[in-house]
Amino acid sequence: MLLGRGPSGEKPSDFPDLVRDSKGVVANYLISCSDRTSTTSSSTRPTNQKLMTTTIIKAISLHQPWASLITMGLKKYETRSWATNYRGPLLICAAKKTSREQKLYHQYFLNKYQQILTNTDNYIEWEDLPFGSAIAQVNLTDCIRMTPAFISEQPQTELDTGDWQVGRFAWRLDNIRRIVPAIPITGKQGLFNAEVELTSLTLEAVS
Question: Residue 170, Cβ neighbours under 10 Å: how many?
């Protein structure tokens, strides 16, 4: 590469005034190119990266298949021996425990309510049940002390899927939405606080 004057005898306009020799020109030119490359890389860096937003939400753990009976549309009350004053969003978590008894209960529910379930997207085989995961988000809207009159108002699906005895409590679950896919979580006893990433949750309404 020859560095010199242009046809008019003048120095090219892009030559730095303070550079007097070819080595200096090359060095200055390379620095200039490096600056332009750096600027271009910075300006074209992706700016639409998704920010992860975490939040604390109340959660409760249930053994399978009772946890998934909620997402299967068979269970709209969670029956407990104790009351809660909490109202609002609630994560339904499936505990890790598995047993032969749980599997037999699951098969019983599938057999009894097969006609209802096969007409929906809620049919779940035992092998497909999630364990140790948050599987649904619901709204806890009421906590009702059971009376003989209240128990007599319940459909057979509720009576089969809960422990309905006078003096116990029925937690009403509304706006039930399945989490797809279920997210791993460590459950605890009672109501507990769970930290989840909101942007990772995909919620599907349960029919």
Answer: 23
Amino acid at 144: I
Nearest CA to 132 out of 187, 90, 54, 86 is that of 187
Query: Which among 175, 146, 167 has a CA at the least distance from the CA of 158?
Result: 146
Considering the four listed CATH numbers 2.30.110.10, 3.40.50.460, 1.10.10.10, 2.30.130.30, the one that applies to the domain covering 54-205 is 2.30.130.30
Measured distance CA(148)–CA(173) in Å, rounded? 21
Count CB atoms within 10 A of the CB of residue 88: 10
What does the domain layout of the chain look like in residue ranges?
A: 18-49, 54-205
Nearest to 151 by CA among 161, 141, 172, 165: 165
β-pair type (77-80, 133-145): unpaired
pLDDT in tens, 87-115: 999 999 999 999 999 999 999 999 999 88
pLDDT tens digits, one per residue of 122-175:
788 899 999 999 999 999 999 999 999 999 999 999 999 999 999 999 999 999
Secondary structure element (H or E) that encloses residue 9, with its range: none
What is the distance between the alpha carbons of residues 167 and 97, in angstroms, rounded to a whole number? 28
CA dihedral 97, 128, 155, 190 (to 10 degrees): 30
Instruction: Report which of 140, 201, 143, 144 is spatially closest to residue 176, judged by C-alpha positions.
Output: 140
- What is the value of pTM for the model shown? 0.71
